[in-house]
Amino acid sequence: MAISTELLKGTLSTIILRLLENSERMYGYELTQYVKESTKGKILLKEGSLYPALHKLEADGLIVSEAVYIGKRMRKYYSLTPKGKVSTKKSVNELLDFLNIIEQLITTNPEYGTT
């Protein structure tokens, strides 16, 4: 079963930044396929959410794009800027803290304080 797009929305930028941190550069389709394969199909990045996120990250100065022609086809590669590298660490830490808090909220029995 795939993860809901609503859950993915708030984490998409952090996921993209982290993947670009671990790779020299990636293009859009490569990002979608990596996420699909890494999550065994549980997270599917759609073009309609991926490319607006990439464009926003680029507008914010966190990533840069480079057009590379392969034959007659153009492929746009994305990579982190120095500002993006700093932002990635902050975003990943913030997301991990948030996930820990959510885990506590949904696994604690409010009546008794434990599960």
UniProtKB/TrEMBL annotation:
Q: Which InterPro entries does the record cross-reference, listed alphabetically? A: Metal_resp_DNA-bind_regulator (IPR052509), Tscrpt_reg_PadR_N (IPR005149), WH-like_DNA-bd_sf (IPR036388), WH_DNA-bd_sf (IPR036390)
Q: Name one Pfam family in it.
A: PadR
- Organism whose genome encodes this protein: Marivirga aurantiaca
> What superkingdom does the record give?
Bacteria
Transcription regulator PadR N-terminal domain location: 16-88
Write down what this protein is called. PadR family transcriptional regulator
PANTHER family associated with the record: PADR-FAMILY TRANSCRIPTIONAL REGULATOR, TRANSCRIPTIONAL REGULATOR RV3488
